[in-house]
Amino acid sequence: QKEVEQNSGPLSVPEGAIASLNCTYSDRVSQSFFWYRQYSGKSPELIMSIYSNGDKEDGRFTAQLNKASQYVSLLIRDSQPSDSATYLCAATPNTNAGKSTFGDGTTLTVKP
Amino acid sequence: DGGITQSPKYLFRKEGQNVTLSCEQNLNHDAMYWYRQDPGQGLRLIYYSQIVNDFQKGDIAEGYSVSREKKESFPLTVTSAQKNPTAFYLCASRTTGTINNEQFFGPGTRLTVL
């Protein structure tokens, strides 16, 4: 079992819909969680971070964390074609090394 | 502008050659990381450094070497011992000592073996 697993994808949603991306992690030491967006051929860009149980909203993005279930999700409301990208989930322990473990990513396509 | 720079953007290597990828940051971050990304895959950690003159192996360090002589710089050498080096290489950095341990990435170097 991989340490961080994401929906295998690809995920396709129509423009204006809600896209739901899921991530589970196996290491209970993980305390910090991040979602990165990666456009084809580009480097990952941080879009959300979440540290405590519950929801965190930033514009059209909502991250949800449930440490008991070891589950993290990212919701994208009012999806736009510009949201089409691969989304990477990362889990990080709160140690000084801060080594993040990344999932393989879920590719999202938003169709106009 | 604060940020992370990587050079070159594209790099071609012949069999048996060593090549060095540059990574520089002016964010005053203590920790720096090197990842490798293969098509359709996530990121795999090669090496990381939390402080100048110290670094640790990641999950796939064989065939790679690094140095950390300055806080701002963390170059990666891909040696001839790395048998399948064609990949996208990403450098990242973060601050330490807080819970906000987000990593920020440079633009990447795409290495191709000829």
List the helices and strands and how they pair.
The complex is a heterodimer of chains A (112) and B (114).
Chain A: E1 4-6, E2 11-14, E3 19-25, E4 30-38, E5 45-50, E6 54-58, E7 61-66, E8 71-76, E9 85-93, E10 101-102, E11 106-111
Parallel strand pairs in A: 2-11
Antiparallel strand pairs in A: 1-3, 3-8, 4-5, 4-9, 6-7, 7-8, 9-10, 9-11
Chain B: E1 4-7, E2 10-13, E3 19-25, E4 31-37, E5 43-51, E6 54-57, E7 64-66, E8 76-78, E9 87-94, E10 104-105, E11 109-113
Parallel strand pairs in B: 2-11
Antiparallel strand pairs in B: 1-3, 3-8, 4-5, 4-9, 5-6, 7-8, 9-10, 9-11
Strand content of chain B: over 45%
Oligomer: heterodimer
Helix % of chain A is under 10%
What is the string of SSEs of chain A from the N terminus onward?
Answer: EEEEEEEEEEE
Span between termini of chain A: 36 Å
- Shape of chain B, please? globular
Largest sheet of chain B: 7 strands, mixed
Number of strands of chain A: 11
* Biggest sheet statistics of chain A: 6 strands, mixed
Overall helicity of chain B? under 10%
